[in-house]
Design brief:
With 375 residues, the protein is an alpha+beta fold. Helices cover 40% and strands 23% of the residues. α4 packs across α5. It starts with a strand and ends with a strand. β7 and β8 form a beta hairpin.
């Protein structure tokens, strides 16, 4: 996928911006708070229909404005089929997204509005690396589940539908657990059966995802770190204790006591380890940063090979911070190479970006961002 044009109105601190990116490398330079991250977040919004920075839609509207609008033109990058022959690119995709305070959000593809925002997910795959990713290490298991769900949903619509159904039935069961009168056992049986059916479908997809991601992740980590540490990813789920229906139903009385469901795939976790120990309790800031970058680059490779014949957009926000000189050098070589498609990168340090440009002959464009203005 290639972003050919992006127009921004009243998005966070960006009053108005017009960008016609290079199909390969795009660098945004400027001081902290200038608006560099907001450009990348606008691209993220067009992929996931929400901000990566603030989950409340109205809070991405510029303070002085009553609405925001994003207008973009995408094209599918050329690709090869299984025989090695060139595949004709799909027609350009025109996306507009807008929100006025007090009204509902509108998302249109080629002038036609989506009935459900979920129908859009996966059309414009994006992988982003940002300082906020630290929550994947230090945050709760919900952060790591969200990571798995986001990546798998981008290439598997059935998975997204199963997640939606599971969340609905989980909410219904929790409501019954909290009511004053004793829940109807027959209704509880039905809800738990639905939870188990959808949950085991989700479990199988997450397990397969983790197995595919691990070697890709370890490859990138070894490249950046120089093979100086041993890293692992593991998947932990209640489904590993036996049939999920049995796991959920046998502790119904305990769920009733606390007022919510203690067991199910909504409690799953992605385990991150460094040299055999939990990452959150081990390692330097540079090792944490290396882990997160390698994890996100592995996601990129996972999506690129998912069979959709399109590479994700890669958004790299302040990725060199906290890395030593060796790791910066290795990461520069990766970014400057041919492994990735269209890249958007931000930095306050022009030296890092100049280093990348010295390592690549690919087309590139440099943008200066100051006080919400992009030139």
């Amino acid at each position: 996928m290639i972003l050919k044009r992006l127009d921004i109105l009243n998005y966070r601190n960006l009053a108005e911006a017009h960008i016609e990116p290079s199909p390969k490398l795009n660098a945004f330079i400027g001081p902290n708070g200038a608006g560099k991250t907001n450009i990348l977040d606008a691209i993220h919004y067009l992929s996931f229909t929400r901000s990566a920075i603030n989950p409340t839609d109205t809070q991405v509207i510029r303070h002085e404005a009553d609405f925001f609008m994003l207008d973009a033109l995408f094209s599918a990058a050329s690709s090869l089929d299984s025989t090695g022959s060139a595949v004709a690119p799909s027609p350009d995709i025109h996306l507009t997204c807008s929100l006025q305070r007090g009204q509902k959000k509108h998302l249109k593809r080629d002038g036609k509005e989506y009935r459900r925002m979920a129908d859009h997910i996966g059309l414009v795959p994006v992988v982003s690396v940002s300082p906020d990713d630290q929550s994947l290490i230090l945050g709760g298991s919900e952060e790591r589940r969200r990571l798995m769900d986001m990546v798998i949903s981008l290439q598997d619509r059935q998975y997204l539908d199963a997640l939606t159904r599971y969340a609905k039935v989980l909410q219904q069961r929790n409501v019954m657990l909290r009511q004053e009168q004793e829940p109807d056992p027959d209704v509880m049986d039905i809800l738990e059966q639905q939870m188990a059916t959808e949950g085991e479908t989700i479990y199988r997809s997450r397990e397969a995802f983790t197995q595919r991601l691990l070697p890709l992740f370890q490859e990138f980590y070894n490249i950046i770190s120089g093979q100086s540490e041993r890293v692992e990813l593991g998947y932990q789920s209640h489904c590993q204790r036996g049939p999920l229906l049995d796991v959920i139903s046998r502790d119904r009385w305990r769920d009733r006591a606390v007022g919510y469901s203690l067991h199910g795939i909504h409690r799953d976790d992605l385990l991150l380890t460094l040299d055999g120990h939990q990452l959150r309790r081990e390692g330097s800031q540079g090792q944490h940063k290396t882990f997160l970058i390698a994890l996100k680059l592995a996601q990129y490779e996972f999506l690129k090979s998912s069979g959709r014949n399109t590479a994700p957009l890669l958004l790299l926000d302040d990725i060199f911070d906290k890395l030593d000189a060796h790791r910066v050098e290795q990461l520069v070589a990766l970014v400057a190479g041919t492994r990735f498609g269209q890249i958007f990168i931000t930095d306050t340090n022009r030296d890092h970006l100049d280093l990348i440009l010295r390592h690549t002959t690919a087309e590139h464009r440099l943008y200066r961002v100051e006080n919400g203005c992009v030139t």
